[in-house]
């Protein structure tokens, strides 16, 4: 399992693709009619509306930037982080999904949720505030992870030292062994 945040020298595209692969996700899934979410470990299908699609794409970049994992606690942490940075641009449906994740994080790991709240920084925004233009997303993929972190006010090394993957993630990385630990 790859357990450290992606290095700041990687492009966001490379880190996003590695993040998707290690979790068993694909870029093509962004366009699926529904996506699978988990609520306290129980898988549920949710409609993948255009706003949800946009939010998932940016949410994945938040994982790349922060380093939060995709296990239940990591999803709780990132939901808390995103909640404090603002959910207004998401609309009610997607904001409710993030709010539920925040509640889950607070219940499962209150200290880590509080740390994520503090790390989010009062008055800072997330990628959700960008308005969601496809051109903006494509441009972000060409940044380095370090540049994305700087844009979001995140320390160069991310916000965590360890990240865990969700229970159904592939047990081995599909690419070269521990590729993001090389620093290239």
What's the average pLDDT? 88
In terms of DSSP E residues, the strand content is 5-15%
How large is the count of helical segments?
7
Task: State the distance separating the first and last CA atoms.
Answer: 18 Å
The beta-strand count equals 2
Outline, from the CA principal axes?
Answer: globular
Reported for the largest beta sheet, the result is: 2 strands, antiparallel
Strand order of the largest sheet: 1-2
Computed structural class: mainly alpha
Can you write the helix and strand succession as a string?
A: HEEHHHHHH
Rg, please? 15 Å
Estimated helix fraction: 40-55%
**What are the segments in which pLDDT stays under 50 over at least 5 consecutive residues?**
174-184
**In the residues, how many domains can be counted?**
1
Give a written overview of the molecule.
By secondary structure, the protein is mainly alpha-helical. It has one domain. The chain has helices spanning 12-23, 50-66, 72-85, 91-108, 110-120, 134-141, 145-152; strands at residues 34-39, 42-47. It has a two-stranded antiparallel ribbon. The model is unreliable at 174-184 (pLDDT under 50).
């Amino acid at each position: 399992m790859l357990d450290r945040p992606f290095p700041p020298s990687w492009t966001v595209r490379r880190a996003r693709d590695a993040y998707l692969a290690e979790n068993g996700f694909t870029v093509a899934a962004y366009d699926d009619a529904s996506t699978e979410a988990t609520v306290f470990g129980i898988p549920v299908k949710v409609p993948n509306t255009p706003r949800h699609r946009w939010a998932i794409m940016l949410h994945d970049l938040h994982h790349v930037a922060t380093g939060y994992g995709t296990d239940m606690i990591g999803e709780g942490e990132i939901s808390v982080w995103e909640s404090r940075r603002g959910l207004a641009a998401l609309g009610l449906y997607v904001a409710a999904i993030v709010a539920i994740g925040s509640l889950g994080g607070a219940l499962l790991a209150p200290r880590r949720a509080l740390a994520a709240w503090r790390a989010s920084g009062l008055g800072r925004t997330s990628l959700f505030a960008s308005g969601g233009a496809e051109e903006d997303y494509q441009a972000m993929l060409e940044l380095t992870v370090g540049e994305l972190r700087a844009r979001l006010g995140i320390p160069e090394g991310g916000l965590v030292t360890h990240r865990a993957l969700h229970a159904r993630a592939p047990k081995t990385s599909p690419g070269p062994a521990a590729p993001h630990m090389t620093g290239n």
